[in-house]
């Protein structure tokens, strides 16, 4: 293990929160070191990295240069920079699922020893999914989580109360709520507003929603079952009635959405949501903190959150058809409804270039650790603009920081309860974490879903194309290798 | 320099000076150096072209014939022959590159037969005259590509099916460039007239060319936003509040052509304006005196003089239009579906995945189509115009 001056960082962190005053000399452990970090454009994700980077520089002397590229370019930029030996980037902050391909190519620094020696990280406080799945590949830690991601459904509490409706528990109920609320003025500007809002733009982050919806129909037997492939032979589990139902729901929701929803990226939809124009919506955990932003939000204390709605009919993996939920088919169902909360994206996480200078690796780990430590992250996750959502047990258990940030106690408990319920669900669905993830999802799935939404092809054609496209990628990467990786990503060890 | 000297590279009197030299070895080197100097002087340019143009072409051809995976310290490359091209033209990506084929309509057949007959007639006319073999091969290639494009649109656009990224690129090229040429020529013609404030309008019309395409993409996306853009109230006043251009394939393509035209009309405008200002005033005034009308003067005097410049500027514009990527990427991300995805954007998306091999194959297909069409245009239109002028 490399010598790692954690003490300096800990002292610095302590100094920052005002409980000690170590000398400036002791704090400058990485004077002259520069850490080049690449992530998506700010303020979301990148903004807080820049601010915390300045704090880290003041503590340790290491300068953190935060650069950004559009979300869709991020994976390719990192992969080519590291694989071609350009090595202009030391740290990437990206989707944890992409890391498997990078680690397989030998591009990521193993952080296991750093983590083992890092008491300030309070590793046991990180929720088990993020600690054991999100941060690890093949049992070793290659990533440090700075954001926990689950998609959930948010609803306007005032609108539903006025309509006498309950928050949706199934996708059918989601459509009922959307239909009932659509066209009502929900923000008092005299204009009719929208029953449902989702970001569906191609080549953005819209394709995560279809996986969130499909998971409820596909996965019934616990996290190890997965939603993408057959775990015996790696054949795609996508050309079936479950994914078809998900596609049809996804398109049907558009009837109650903004007219140009197909061209809405995440920022467009969130702007509509916080301006009070949407009754129900699917999003990551960001809507909660965004709703309390005095400067932009018209929905403070008017938003509730529930785990993703489920389904009373689920996929029979043998026949490919939907069957009713029963004790056997849906062992984790609640009130006859199967739920499979989808860890969409897994969360923004930091990984370090294996070929970076050893001192830079040390300093970079120190910075990622600093971002992750509860003293910092427990504050950051309460601010909507950061894009960081909770992933530590203390962030779920202690409501006070959320109340201090501006939530009402009731809203905070509702919001954290929805995430906590998703996280603790034994049938939680894991995102894809194998080599080629970007091709499976970002190239093939995204394109075919977009074509289906644009009425270019039918649901059956879209699913057949996805199946064929996924098979080609699997063959290209090697079926046996992919199968092994997929099984490992679901925690299947035998 | 005499013609013979130019061919050999020798300076006049050089041979005589060598014969009377008292230092034969040095003179021999000097002679050799003189003879080789033209090669030596051109060598840096040749090397630069080889490095920056030919080498990437060869490297990308290797990629296009392989499957590539990025690994630590480089690439894993597996040779697969023409499999990447086969995938685009006949395989699982056919719908994406060429389009979806569900049979040919009567209209499609009619268009195919008419265009096919015209091309055959064109070739027969050429063969009946003085035949130059490379010219015949070039014409056969041109006719084949034009016929292929006709069949592509006949089987998709005229038969109720969707065309792929090749068709989208050709739409941007033919429709976009035509619109830009007509408007650019019109504006140039107006600004060539002795009207008040024409200098101001020249500057205004030229400005869009200076703006980065990324900025234009974002600006047009914002301007065309029907729910929260600056023109949203206007849209709603016209009863179009529920119409989303980005969700309609043709409206989205047209909006992209509008954005592209806004940027590139100034280019055509400024070049044609320069050409118009070089048109002989004497001839125009003489025609006026002889009682010719404005349209007649344009057709008989102005157009023949600006036609070679117009053909050249269109050639440059067509080459640029084949590479359109910024606007569809920003305005629609290729959507709805794949309706606005150009071939360049198709290659870019594959490269970003990262599927470098497919990206290279698509780029080569684009190169082939663009080269055949542009060389054909150059040989059959630009050179003809120049010959007519000469």
How would you portray this structure in words?
The complex is a heterodimer of chains A (494) and B (390). In chain A, the strands form four sheets. Chain A has a five-stranded mixed sheet, with helices on both faces. With 494 residues, chain A is α/β, with parallel strands linked by helices. Chain A has helices at 6-16, 24-27, 46-60, 71-83, 99-104, 112-116, 128-134, 157-163, 171-181, 207-218, 241-253, 266-274, 287-291, 358-372, 374-380, 393-397, 400-405, 409-424, 437-453, 459-477, 479-489; strands at 34-39, 63-68, 91-95, 136-137, 140-141, 144-145, 152-156, 194-197, 278-283, 303-307, 313-315, 322-324, 348-352. In chain A, α1 packs across α3 and α19 (437-453) packs antiparallel against α20 (459-477). Helices cover 43% and strands 11% of the residues of chain A. By secondary structure, chain B is mainly α. Chain B contains 17 helices and two strands. In chain B, a hairpin with a 2-residue loop joins β1 (66-71) and β2 (74-79). In chain B, α10 packs across α12. The model of chain B is unreliable at 1-21 (pLDDT under 50). At the A-B interface, α4, α19 and α20 of A face β1 and α16 of B.
Topology:
The complex is a heterodimer of chains A (494) and B (390).
Chain A: H1 6-16, H2 24-27, E1 34-39, H3 46-60, E2 63-68, H4 71-83, E3 91-95, H5 99-104, H6 112-116, H7 128-134, E4 136-137, E5 140-141, E6 144-145, E7 152-156, H8 157-163, H9 171-181, E8 194-197, H10 207-218, H11 241-253, H12 266-274, E9 278-283, H13 287-291, E10 303-307, E11 313-315, E12 322-324, E13 348-352, H14 358-372, H15 374-380, H16 393-397, H17 400-405, H18 409-424, H19 437-453, H20 459-477, H21 479-489
Parallel strand pairs in A: 1-2, 1-3, 8-9
Antiparallel strand pairs in A: 3-13, 4-5, 6-13, 7-9, 7-10, 11-12
Helix pairs in contact in A: 1-3, 3-14, 10-11, 19-20
Chain B: H1 3-8, H2 14-19, H3 24-64, E1 66-71, E2 74-79, H4 83-89, H5 94-97, H6 106-128, H7 133-155, H8 165-192, H9 198-206, H10 213-223, H11 232-237, H12 249-277, H13 281-289, H14 294-322, H15 326-331, H16 343-352, H17 356-389
Helix pairs in contact in B: 3-17, 6-7, 7-17, 8-9, 8-12, 8-14, 8-16, 10-12, 12-14, 13-14, 14-17, 16-17
């Amino acid at each position: 293990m490399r010598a790692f001056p954690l003490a300096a960082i800990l002292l610095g962190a302590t100094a920052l929160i005002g409980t000690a005053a170590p000398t400036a000399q002791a704090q400058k452990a990485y004077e002259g070191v520069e850490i080049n970090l690449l992530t998506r454009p700010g303020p979301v994700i990148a903004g807080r990295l820049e601010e915390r980077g300045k704090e880290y520089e003041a503590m340790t002397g290491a300068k953190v240069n935060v650069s950004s590229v559009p979300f869709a370019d991020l994976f390719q930029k990192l992969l080519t920079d590291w694989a071609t030996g350009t090595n202009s980037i030391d740290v990437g902050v990206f989707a944890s699922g992409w890391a498997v391909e990078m680690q397989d190519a030998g591009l990521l620094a193993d952080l296991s020893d750093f983590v083992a020696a890092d008491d300030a990280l309070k590793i046991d406080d990180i929720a088990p999914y993020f600690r054991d799945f999100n941060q690890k590949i093949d049992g070793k830690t290659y990533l440090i989580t700075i954001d926990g991601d689950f998609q959930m459904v948010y609803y306007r509490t005032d609108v539903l109360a006025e309509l006498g409706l309950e928050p949706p528990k199934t996708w059918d109920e989601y459509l009922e709520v959307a239909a009932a609320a659509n066209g009502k003025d929900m923000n008092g500007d005299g204009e009719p507003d929208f029953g449902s809002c989702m970001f569906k733009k191609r080549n953005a982050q819209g394709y995560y929603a279809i996986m969130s919806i499909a998971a409820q129909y596909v996965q019934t037997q616990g996290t190890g079952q997965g939603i993408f492939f057959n775990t015996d032979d790696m054949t795609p589990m996508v050309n079936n009635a479950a994914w078809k139902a998900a596609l049809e729901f996804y398109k049907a929701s558009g009837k109650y959405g903004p007219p140009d929803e197909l061209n809405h990226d995440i920022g467009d939809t969130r702007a509509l949501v916080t301006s009070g124009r949407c009754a129900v919506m699917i999003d990551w955990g960001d809507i909660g903190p965004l709703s309390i932003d005095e400067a932009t939000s018209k929905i403070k204390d008017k938003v509730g959150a529930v785990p993703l709605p489920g389904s009373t009919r689920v996929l029979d993996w043998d026949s490919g058809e939907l069957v009713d939920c029963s004790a056997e088919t849906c062992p984790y169902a609640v009130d006859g409804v199967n739920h499979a909360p989808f860890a969409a994206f897994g969360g923004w996480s930091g990984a370090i270039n294996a070929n970076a200078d050893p001192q830079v690796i040390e300093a970079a780990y120190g910075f990622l650790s600093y971002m992750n430590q509860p003293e910092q992250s427990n504050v950051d996750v309460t601010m909507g603009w950061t894009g960081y959502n909770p992933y530590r047990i203390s962030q779920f258990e202690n409501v006070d920081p959320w109340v201090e940030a501006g939530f009402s106690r009731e809203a905070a408990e509702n919001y954290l309860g929805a995430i906590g319920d998703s996280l603790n669900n034994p049938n939680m669905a894991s995102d894809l974490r194998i080599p080629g993830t970007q091709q499976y999802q970002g190239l093939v799935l995204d394109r075919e879903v977009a074509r289906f939404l644009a009425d270019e092809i039918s649901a059956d054609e879209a699913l057949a194309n996805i199946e064929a496209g996924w098979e080609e990628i699997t063959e290209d990467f090697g079926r046996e290798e992919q199968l092994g990786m997929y099984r490992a990503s679901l925690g299947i060890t035998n | 320099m005499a013609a013979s000297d130019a061919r050999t590279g020798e300076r006049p009197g050089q041979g005589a000076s060598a014969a009377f030299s008292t230092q034969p070895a040095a003179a021999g080197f000097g002679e050799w150096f003189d003879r080789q100097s033209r090669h030596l002087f051109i060598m840096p340019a040749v090397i630069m072209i080889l490095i920056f143009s030919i080498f990437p072409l060869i490297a990308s051809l290797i990629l296009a014939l392989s499957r590539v995976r990025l690994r630590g310290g480089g690439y894993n490359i597996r040779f697969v022959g023409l499999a990447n091209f086969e995938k685009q033209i006949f395989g699982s990506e056919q719908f994406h590159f060429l389009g979806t084929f569900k049979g040919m309509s009567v209209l499609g057949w009619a268009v195919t037969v008419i265009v096919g007959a015209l091309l055959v007639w064109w070739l027969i006319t050429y063969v009946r005259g003085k035949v130059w073999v490379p010219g015949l091969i070039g014409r056969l290639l041109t006719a084949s590509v034009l016929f292929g494009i006709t069949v592509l649109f006949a089987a998709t656009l005229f038969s109720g099916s969707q065309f792929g990224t090749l068709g989208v690129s050709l739409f941007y090229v033919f429709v976009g460039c035509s619109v830009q040429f007509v408007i650019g020529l019109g504006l140039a013609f107006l600004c060539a007239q002795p009207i008040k404030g024409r200098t101001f309008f020249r500057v205004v019309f030229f400005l869009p060319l200076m703006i980065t395409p990324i900025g234009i993409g974002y600006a047009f996306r914002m301007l065309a936003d029907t729910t929260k853009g600056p023109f949203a109230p206007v849209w709603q006043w016209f009863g179009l509040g529920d119409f989303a251009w980005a969700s309609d394939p043709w409206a989205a393509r047209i909006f992209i052509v509008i954005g592209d035209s806004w940027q590139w009309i100034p280019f055509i405008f400024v070049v044609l304006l320069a050409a118009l200002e070089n048109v002989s005033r004497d001839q125009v005034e003489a025609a006026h005196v002889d009682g010719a009308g404005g349209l007649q003067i344009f057709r008989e005097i102005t157009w023949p003089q600006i036609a070679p410049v117009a053909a050249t500027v269109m050639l440059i514009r067509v080459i640029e239009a084949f590479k359109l990527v910024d606007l569809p990427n920003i305005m629609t991300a290729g959507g709805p579906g794949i309706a606005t995805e150009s071939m360049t954007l198709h290659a870019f998306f594959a490269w970003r995945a990262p599927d470098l091999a497919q990206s290279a194959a698509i780029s080569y297909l684009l190169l082939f189509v663009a080269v055949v069409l542009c060389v054909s245009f150059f040989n059959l239109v630009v050179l003809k115009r120049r010959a007519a002028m000469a």
